[in-house]
Each structure stands twice: as C-alpha cells, then as structure tokens.
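User: Please predict the structure of the protein below. I'd like the answer in structure-token form so I can feed it into my own downstream comparison script.

Assistant: Understood. Taking the following sequence of 132 residues as input:
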Amino acid sequence: MNTDPIADYLTRVRNAIKANHRVVEIPASNIKKEITKVLYHKGYIQSYRFDDAAVQGTIKIALKYNPTTKAPAITKLQRVSTPGLRQYVAADNLPRVLSGLGIAIISTSKGVMTEKEAKTENVGGEVLCFVY
C-alpha cells in the first residue's frame, strides 16, 4: 500500500526523465488523471492515455523533450503538500513558481488547476506540487 500516491506519481515521472525514457506507465487514480491533464494542457508532457482495462487502470504518459538539445520540458517536480503536513492556501495567497515561469498545481473545490486558473476563479485549496 502506498501512503502518498501523488509523491509516487511525481517520482515515477522524475525517474523516467532522468533515465531519458519516452513513455512512463503509472497506476491510475482520479487525482493522478487530473494532474496529468493539467501537465498536458500546460505543455509539460507530449501526450497521455488512460488504460482502464485492469481493475485500477494505468496512465501512459509520453514525456516531452526538446528535439535539438534533448533537454526535458520538466526540469523539476516538487511535492509541496504531504499526508503528514497538508499545505492549504487562500485565494489571495496563491504561490508563484519562478516568478511565473513554472506552475503550482492546486486541488480546489472546483477541481485540480494551476495557481493562475485558481486566481481567476478566486478559489484557494491544497498546493499539491510545483512544476518547472
């Protein structure tokens, strides 16, 4: 049993990037699917596919690399809120990552979104991770 599935998700993606893998396969859950959708819409991953053939299902993520320099689109994934220490922020205290160059993924009452989307919706929530 995994006590922190989001940290496991981020670690699998981080390890796949360090090993220069093109595709990473991760056990699925609803929160992981929403994080994957945010990463895709913000351009950090190339594509994704949800396979629900098994009981739990899997997420297959095609990682994005620069074609000339072979540098990954994701340079750092950092878990913020953990099961032992949840990090909640109000709508007026949303974090900025690298002065707006990165994103913070927030779990709000209106769904999983970036800090910029949460600011426009005027909602706060739990800060899941930073991506840049």
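That's the full token string. The chain has a mean pLDDT of 96.
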